[in-house]
């Protein structure tokens, strides 16, 4: 007789190889951790983000330079400090323009422009998810 038992094993759904079902309340939320240069990119309206992306493709660093001024004009960033975001965007624009000579700046500038559009589309979706304010009626009867 072998050492194996003939017992029936039941999977409760919480084991190592379990398949999640609709009844499970466990969700994994993943967030990306970005550096301070990425966090300094302002949340811009989508048309402005597309224009600055095109400018970054044509003239590397120009769209990033203009986006740094958007930080001072009221566009929010993940940093929360407009002056710091302005300085970091100016620094990245300068580095994109200087490193354009070795093609690295041009690729970086294109990717930065794509980030402008990506952040603009994400911020549009986030604002549409906010619930409407519902006024609660008083339960007091006069």
TrEMBL record:
It is a multi-pass membrane protein. The chain crosses the membrane at residues 46-72, 84-108. Residues 1-20 have a biased composition (Polar residues). Signal peptide: none annotated. Pfam families: Spec3 (PF15795). Residues 1-23 are annotated as: Disordered. The keyword Transmembrane helix applies. One of its GO terms (cellular component) is membrane. The keyword Membrane applies. Keywords: Membrane, Transmembrane, Transmembrane helix. It is found in: Membrane. PANTHER family: PROTEIN STUM, PROTEIN STUM HOMOLOG. This is Protein SPEC3.
């Amino acid at each position: 007789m072998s050492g194996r038992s003939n017992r029936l094993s039941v999977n409760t759904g919480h084991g190592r190889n379990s398949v999640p079902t609709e009844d499970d309340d466990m969700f994994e939320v993943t967030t990306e951790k970005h550096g301070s240069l990425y966090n300094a990119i302002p949340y811009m309206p989508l048309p402005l983000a597309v224009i600055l992306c095109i400018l970054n493709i044509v003239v590397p660093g120009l769209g990033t330079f203009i986006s740094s001024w958007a930080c001072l004009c009221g566009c929010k960033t993940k940093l929360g400090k407009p002056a710091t975001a302005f300085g970091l965007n100016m620094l990245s624009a300068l580095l994109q323009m200087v490193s354009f000579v070795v093609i690295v700046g041009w690729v970086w500038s294109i990717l930065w422009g794509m980030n402008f559009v990506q952040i603009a589309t994400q911020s549009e979706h986030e604002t549409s998810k906010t619930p409407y304010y519902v006024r609660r009626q008083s339960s007091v009867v006069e």
